[in-house]
Design goal:
This protein is mostly helical. It has two domains: 16-268, Orthogonal Bundle (Fic-like fold), CATH 1.10.3290.10; 286-357, Arc Repressor Mutant, subunit A (Orthogonal Bundle). It has 16 helices and three strands. Strands 1-3-2 form a three-stranded antiparallel β-sheet. The chain is globular. The N and C termini lie far apart (55 Å).
C-alpha cells in the first residue's frame, strides 16, 4: 500500500447543504454545555480524568478512573497495571496542560501540539518513540506486527509532514463556515496525517475541546468527545476511511455535528448525577460535622476521591471523627478501601462517585475491598 497524499486545507467545494442544518443545534449544545460547566467548574477535573480514560480506551487501554486518580495522587491501586495506568495519567496531564495554556490565552500552535505529545509519551516505555517530535520515519496502521504491505492505512511520507503540519496550523485560524465544522475537518486531517510516531489519536481527541474554545464556540475548553467516539467506534473510523477512499468529507462532518448533540446529553446527565450525589453525601456527612466543615469536606472528596486516613483527618481535623465517618461510609458502600502494599497503609476511595462516572470498573474492585494479607 502506498502512503496517502491528503488534500490541503481548507477543503474546497464542500457540499454545505448536506450538513448546514446541523450547525445551529450543535452550537446550541455547546452553549448549554458552557453554561453547565461554567456554573460547576469543580466537576471539570473529574470529567477531564474521565476523558483521559475514555480516549485511552479507544486505544485498548483498560485503566479505570479510580486507578488513574489513585496513581496521580501517589497511591498504588493496581500495581500490576502500573505502566498502563501511568500512560493514562500522562494523558490527563497533557490534557490539563493544554486546557491551562489555551485559557491563559496561548494560541493553538504546532509547538503546543508537540508539547501535548511530549507529555503524553513521557513515560520511560515511550522514549524510543521520539515524544514531541514530528516523525521522520514512515508509520502505518494495521494489525500489530504486520508489515506495511498488509496495512489498513499508510499515512503520508515523513518528507511531506513539514508542509502538511504548517498547513494544518494555518487552518486552525482559518475563517471556516463554522468553528464546529473547522473542528471536524481538523480532527479528521490530523488523524489522516498521523504526524507523530505514537499518540496521534489521543492528541487528536485532546485538540477537540481546545479548538472549540479557541474559536469561541465554547466558554471553557472542556467539551470532551471521546465517549461518543468510543460508543460509535465503527462509524468513527469508517467515516474517516471514507475521506481517504472517497474524498467524502460531508458524511464525516455530519457525524461530528450529530455527535456533539449526543455528547452534550451525556455530559449533562453526568453533571446532574454528580450534583445529586453531592447533595446526598452532604446530608450524610452533616450527621458528623457542622455545615461549614461538611461543605469543605464534600468539596475535598470530589476534588480528590482517593485518599488516605491521614489526609482525611487533616480535612476533618479530628482523628476520632475520621474513624467514625470512614467506618460508617465503608459500611454504607460510599467509601471502599484497599491496602497499598508499597505505602503499607489503608487507602480510601469515594466509590459511590466512581460507580457513577467511571467508564471502566474492574470486577475485583466491585466485589470486595483489597485487604492486607
Amino acid at each position: 500500500m502506498e502512503p496517502f497524499v491528503p488534500q490541503k486545507l481548507p477543503i474546497k467545494k464542500l457540499k454545505l447543504d448536506s450538513f448546514i442544518r446541523l450547525i445551529g443545534p450543535a452550537n446550541q449544545c455547546l452553549k448549554e454545555n458552557s453554561l453547565l460547566t461554567k456554573n460547576h467548574a469543580e466537576m471539570i477535573k473529574l470529567l477531564a480524568y474521565r476523558e483521559a480514560v475514555l480516549s485511552s480506551k479507544i486505544e485498548h487501554y483498560t485503566a479505570t478512573m479510580e486507578e488513574v486518580i489513585a496513581y496521580d495522587n501517589g497511591y498504588h491501586l493496581q500495581p500490576e497495571h502500573a505502566d498502563e495506568i501511568a500512560e493514562v495519567v500522562n494523558h490527563y496531564r497533557a490534557l490539563e496542560y493544554g486546557i491551562e495554556r489555551v485559557t491563559d490565552g496561548k494560541e493553538l500552535t504546532l509547538d503546543l501540539i508537540c508539547d501535548l505529545n511530549s507529555i503524553l509519551l513521557s513515560s520511560p516505555e515511550s522514549q524510543g518513540k521520539n515524544p514531541g517530535c514530528i516523525r521522520k520515519v514512515q508509520n502505518w496502521i494495521g494489525v500489530p506486527g504486520t508489515p506495511i504491505e498488509e496495512a489498513f492505512f499508510v499515512p503520508p511520507v515523513a518528507d511531506a509532514l513539514t508542509n502538511l503540519m504548517q498547513n494544518f496550523e494555518e487552518y486552525l485560524t482559518y475563517d471556516e463556515v463554522d468553528p464546529t465544522v473547522l473542528a471536524a475537518i481538523a480532527h479528521a486531517q490530523f488523524q489522516i496525517v498521523h504526524p507523530f510516531e505514537d499518540g496521534n489519536g489521543r492528541v487528536c481527541r485532546m485538540l477537540i475541546p481546545l479548538m472549540l474554545y479557541r474559536r469561541q464556540a465554547s466558554v471553557m475548553p472542556t467539551f470532551f468527545m471521546s465517549e461518543v467516539l468510543l460508543s460509535n467506534i465503527g462509524q468513527y473510523y469508517g467515516l474517516l476511511t471514507w475521506i481517504v477512499n472517497k474524498r467524502n468529507w460531508e458524511s464525516w462532518i455530519k457525524f461530528f455535528l450529530l455527535a456533539i448533540k449526543y455528547q452534550q446529553n451525556c455530559l449533562s446527565q453526568y453533571l446532574t448525577s454528580m450534583l445529586t450525589l453531592r447533595s446526598s453525601i452532604q446530608k450524610k456527612i452533616q450527621c458528623f460535622l457542622p455545615a461549614k466543615e461538611t461543605e469543605k469536606l464534600v468539596s475535598r472528596l470530589f476534588d480528590q476521591p482517593v485518599f488516605d486516613k491521614t489526609l482525611l483527618s487533616e480535612w476533618i481535623d479530628s482523628n476520632q471523627l475520621t474513624e467514625n465517618l470512614s467506618k460508617d461510609f465503608l459500611k454504607a458502600k460510599i467509601f471502599n478501601s484497599f491496602f497499598d502494599d508499597e505505602l503499607d497503609e489503608e487507602i480510601l476511595s469515594f466509590t459511590a462517585l466512581f460507580n457513577l462516572i467511571d467508564p471502566i470498573r474492574r470486577v475485583a474492585n466491585n466485589s470486595q475491598s483489597r485487604k492486607k494479607a
